[in-house]
Design a protein that fits this description.
By secondary structure, this protein is α/β, with parallel strands linked by helices. It has eight helices and ten strands. Helices cover about 35% and strands about 20% of the residues.
Length: about 290
């Protein structure tokens, strides 16, 4: 039973295949964490005029709200699993989708969105709703691709690590996720190998990175002794290393910002690229 006061997991939907998969993933995550789930569709009124198209004569705020109600009901019906007991609440709210989800994130434990969408989330691509929510939400944001859910059974959580700063938040989430999933944790730090001269500081980076990674991991390994851990130092570009490793994982955890090995880890950089290319759900942790 869910404890009183536990913040819900919120899934933003628009009826697209990606939002349906996002809801399935959100249901499983909510069951694993013992959190309630809120399925929300944001509709925008007044409706924006679309190029080369005419608005229906009977388009009103009421019809938009009714359409949003239908979207939420259809998504919940398509994803309901009788074997998973999760309290699910339907919600339709007016507003700009990205801004409304960011606002709602203040009262959520996690936001889940599809990688792409249509309708209420018109053009849901990185750089639009998913990118804005992942960059600015007050809680972790999971971005789910339509082909990702259930695509792997690796029993591995992959986390990208980039030195101090936000590492504690990212590692804390990743260890907790692995523990709840009864999975192993693979922690990866990466930096592309240029033509490093022997004896240079850059040439010493692999050993330094391994030592730094081990130091960052140690407190969490002590806190979660049940989680098997693998530490990986890669000489690939960070994006390539993470996307390649994601093929052998169930979920990828990254920070919203970074430095050093993940230089400029902002949406629009590494995190945007792994969300665009990783074949599994990606969780962005602030």
């Amino acid at each position: 039973m869910t404890e009183r006061g536990v913040r819900p997991i919120l899934v933003g939907v628009d009826g697209s295949p990606e939002s349906i998969e996002a809801t399935r993933w959100g249901v499983a995550e909510a069951a694993m964490r013992g959190h309630p789930l809120v399925v929300v569709c944001v509709y925008f009124w007044p409706a924006p005029a679309l190029p080369l198209s005419r608005q229906p004569a009977d388009l009103t705020e009421d019809t938009l709200r009714q359409d949003a109600d239908r979207v939420v009901a259809d998504v919940i019906g398509a994803t309901r699993n009788p074997d998973i007991d999760v309290p699910i609440t339907a919600s339709t709210v007016p507003g700009l989708p990205a801004y409304k989800l960011i606002e709602l994130s203040e009262r959520a434990s996690m936001i889940v969105v599809g990688h792409r969408g249509h309708g209420g989330f018109a053009g849901l691509r990185l750089g639009s709703v998913a990118a804005n929510v992942a960059a600015h939400a007050a809680c972790p944001v999971a971005v789910v691709r339509s082909a990702a859910t259930g695509a792997t059974a690796a029993r591995t959580v992959l986390v990208g690590v980039d030195g101090p700063g936000s590492a504690d938040a990212v590692l804390g989430f990743a260890f907790d996720e692995a523990s709840r999933r009864d999975s192993a944790l693979r922690a990866l730090t990466a930096r592309e190998r240029p033509n490093w001269p022997i004896g240079s500081e850059a040439a010493d980076w692999p050993a330094t990175a391994a030592a730094n990674l081990s130091a960052l991991m140690r407190p969490w390994e002590e806190k979660f002794p049940n989680v098997p851990v693998e530490q990986v130092v890669s000489h690939e570009r960070p994006t390539a290393a993470l996307v390649d490793a994601a093929a052998r994982a169930d979920v990828l955890i990254v920070g919203s910002r970074g430095h050093g090995g993940f230089a400029g880890l902002l949406l629009g950089s590494v995190s945007q690229q792994v969300i665009n290319h990783a074949p599994i759900p990606v969780v962005v942790v602030r």
